[in-house]
Amino acid sequence: RSDDAGKSWxxxxxxxxxxxxxxxxxxxxxxxxFAAVSSxxxxxxxxxxxxxxxxxxxxxxxxxxxxxxxxxxxxxxxxPTVWVAIDPAHPRRIFAAVVSAQEGGIYLTDNPEKEAGAxxxxxxxxxxxxxxxxxxxxLNDGALQVTYSGRRVGNNFTPSSGVFLSPDAGKxxxxxxxxxxxxxxxxxxVDPADPQQNNWYACVFFAWGxxxxxxxxxxxxxxxxxKTWECLADNATxxxxxxxxxxxxxxxxxxxxxxFTTEQDGLFYCANxxxxxxxxxxxxxxPFKHPLRVQFNPAKLDEMWITSFGNxxxxxxxxx
Length: 320
Description:
Elements: E1 20-26, E2 33-38, H1 51-54, E3 59-64, E4 72-73, E5 81-87, E6 90-98, E7 105-109, E8 121-122, E9 133-138, E10 144-148, E11 152-153, E12 156-157, E13 162-166, E14 174-175, E15 185-190, E16 200-204, E17 218-222, E18 230-233, E19 245-250, E20 258-262, E21 267-270, E22 281-282, E23 291-296, E24 303-308, E25 313-317
Antiparallel strand pairs: 1-2, 2-3, 3-4, 5-6, 6-7, 7-8, 9-10, 10-13, 11-12, 13-14, 15-16, 16-17, 17-18, 19-20, 20-21, 21-22, 23-24, 24-25
């Protein structure tokens, strides 16, 4: 935890005792922060896709009201949890992505203010899925958009991954996956400049094995909420010849500027991702092959923070 904008760090907090905090989101109504935590690290990297590496783990959702100094449990999920989201139309409704072959899925609570006494309900499972949810986003019209990530049995991936949409808050689901997303999908991002929220960008890894080898990794774009997809960047863009795309982000200050992160090839940049046939290039100044996510400082929009899989946190400026 840092209280000086990342100049120094310490374990100056209480209540969070598990291995990993995967994702956190701020509640603008209460100024609280909810976080997804797990005893299992490296979820959805290649070594943590099989049931025997995940299903015995613990986890859940925590909440803090003092900027991360103290954390308290929100109910009892008791399984690795990798994502948390707030419904903007119902601020006391929290969604969580719980990872488990038997008990995994999208859960919700409508009483997070009860903290340890909060109750969770598991939603119906999207088609094909096998308990490995990842991203969750509640769209402006109330639809629920999620990704499910990879699951391996032995050396083969199961066709249980992809992008899914629920128009009724998780009662029913539509499979909005490109065939290349059926084995190992990662993050999905909605274009912030699209008021209808129809433009999505999905990140996909290459899945080896009998079935997975048929799919193609890369960065994908849809203009119609996943009914049709276009691959914007594939292995031809990659110096390693394997463009495994982890996540992506829009620059909030410079219209159309866009970044995506990869497993092998570092950070990529596009001057305008909204044009036909956008062009991507490696960011030479970023020094590590596997960045994870790109964040922008809301108080200083030309300052970008990049987390990584093994090389800490880097801060850069988009004005350079």
